[in-house]
Write a structure and sequence with these properties.
The chain has 189 residues and is mainly beta. The chain is 5% helix and 49% strand. It is built from 2 helices and 11 strands. It is globular, with a radius of gyration of 16 Å.
Length: 189
């Protein structure tokens, strides 16, 4: 059943009585998911008494030019492969300066050479592209973050959380020779 949503269970490392982080959902059968060129991944971090989780697909460079070619500058990109990149927030927060309530959001970006627009969006149950007016109408807001150049290239897209600092962290994106840091800060319950 190609339209079947398969749940990928994630073990909680938290203590007894804490809720497990949300499971990542992907479209397709187990065999279809295993055959994808871009592997599935997730990242999570304990922050301010809750667990923030991110689910995404990890494309690779494979000899291609990524920034301003495969991922054109000035054009919305799903920040990964396949389904949209989804962020699960157990509390109200600011993501790249965008205030959001507790819940699940998709992230997409509009990359440029020196900065990226980070869009926080409510359209989470869709394929990652196209990012058209139907999707952009569900934007909660957008913020801007600077681009850093990496000295060594990163072959496969990595999204990871930086260290927790009180009620804040950053989502670090690294691919090809580009790094961006998306600040995330708890604002309420």
């Amino acid at each position: 059943m190609p339209d079947l949503l398969l749940l990928i269970a994630v073990l909680s490392l938290g203590s007894v009585g804490q809720r497990a982080p949300a499971a990542c959902t992907y479209r397709g059968t187990a065999a279809e998911l295993a055959g994808r060129v871009s592997p599935l991944d997730s990242a999570q971090i304990r922050l301010a008494g809750g667990t923030i989780k991110l689910c995404y697909g990890r494309p690779s460079v494979r000899g291609r030019q990524v920034m301003d070619s495969l991922v054109p500058y000035g054009t919305p990109w799903r920040l990964g492969a396949n389904e949209p990149t989804r962020l699960f927030l157990p509390f109200a927060a600011e993501v790249a300066g965008v205030r959001v309530r507790r819940g699940v959001y998709s992230l997409y970006v509009v990359p440029r050479a020196t900065e990226w627009e980070i869009h926080v969006n409510r359209a989470v149950d869709r394929w990652g592209i196209p990012i058209d007016s139907v999707v952009t109408k569900k934007d909660v807001g957008k913020g801007t973050v600077p681009v850093e150049a990496l000295s060594q290239p990163v072959e496969t897209l990595i999204l990871r959380f930086g260290a927790a600092n009180g009620g804040a962290t950053e989502l670090v994106v690294e691919w090809e020779k580009t790094r961006v840091r998306i600040p995330i800060r708890k604002t309420g319950s």
